[in-house]
Amino acid sequence: MITVIDYSVGNIRSVCNALDNIGCENRLSNLPEDIRNSDGIILPGVAAFGYAMNALGEDCGELLKEEADKGKPLLGICSGYQVLFDSSTELGFNRGLEMIQGTVERLPEGLIIPHMGWNKVRINPDIPLLEGFGEEEYFYFAHSYYALLSDEKAESAMTEYGRTDVLACVQKDNIFGLQFHPEKSSGLGMKVLENFEKICRS
């Protein structure tokens, strides 16, 4: 059972629908007992960084950290991925969950913002979430801010927007994050979610 965190931000139901489409048992909840009694956790969302942190709440955020510390797989998607980092400058300074070292900054001047559309990701075969892919694959992005990774313990896979390298996927032990939307990335995105389900079962 995978618990998708319900915390009043956008694009949550589409993640649940994608999990349904691959036959993955899931529930939408923010109840502590559901989070604890799950094989894995997905933190999705489309929202400003500070809004997402406020909507998540301190208690739920701490519980996610506790469960991740116990080794439970956790996957953040879009805003849910960005809040895994230390902080963001979006609409002022905001602290994140501080699970992965790095900051979230606005995409550089001169680029079309938001970045929306399909972009080629350079696959890192050392990330089990990306197992079974070619050297480069296309996924769907929709974001105005991007993470600057400084965590030496983390694995990364990159994309390029304009001439800017953008972190597309990150892994630190049992914690995974995706800047792109697997639920909007057709068959390849479904394969990413299938890989996460496999990780949760292992």
TrEMBL record:
Protein localization: Cytoplasm
Lineage: Bacteria, Pseudomonadati, Planctomycetota, Phycisphaerae, Sedimentisphaerales
Gene3D superfamilies listed in its UniProt record: 3.40.50.880
GO biological process, one term: L-histidine biosynthetic process
Biological pathway: Amino-acid biosynthesis; L-histidine biosynthesis; L-histidine from 5-phospho-alpha-D-ribose 1-diphosphate: step 5/9
Free-text function comment from the UniProt entry: IGPS catalyzes the conversion of PRFAR and glutamine to IGP, AICAR and glutamate. The HisH subunit catalyzes the hydrolysis of glutamine to glutamate and ammonia as part of the synthesis of IGP and AICAR. The resulting ammonia molecule is channeled to the active site of HisF.
Subunit text: Heterodimer of HisH and HisF.
Annotated InterPro entries: Class_I_gatase-like (IPR029062), GATASE (IPR017926), Imidazole-glycPsynth_HisH (IPR010139)
Keywords from the UniProt entry: Amino-acid biosynthesis, Cytoplasm, Glutamine amidotransferase, Glycosyltransferase, Histidine biosynthesis, Hydrolase, Lyase, Transferase
Record PANTHER family: IMIDAZOLE GLYCEROL PHOSPHATE SYNTHASE SUBUNIT HISH (PTHR42701:SF1)
Domain Glutamine amidotransferase: 4-196
E.C. designation(s): 4.3.2.10, 3.5.1.2
Chief localisation class: cytoplasm
GO molecular function: glutaminase activity; imidazoleglycerol-phosphate synthase activity; lyase activity
GO cellular component: cytoplasm
Coiled coil: none
Active site: C78 (nucleophile), H181, E183
Organism of provenance: Sedimentisphaera cyanobacteriorum
Protein name: Imidazole glycerol phosphate synthase subunit HisH
Reaction catalysed by this enzyme: 5-[(5-phospho-1-deoxy-D-ribulos-1-ylimino)methylamino]-1-(5-phospho-beta-D-ribosyl)imidazole-4-carboxamide + L-glutamine = D-erythro-1-(imidazol-4-yl)glycerol 3-phosphate + 5-amino-1-(5-phospho-beta-D-ribosyl)imidazole-4-carboxamide + L-glutamate + H(+); L-glutamine + H2O = L-glutamate + NH4(+)
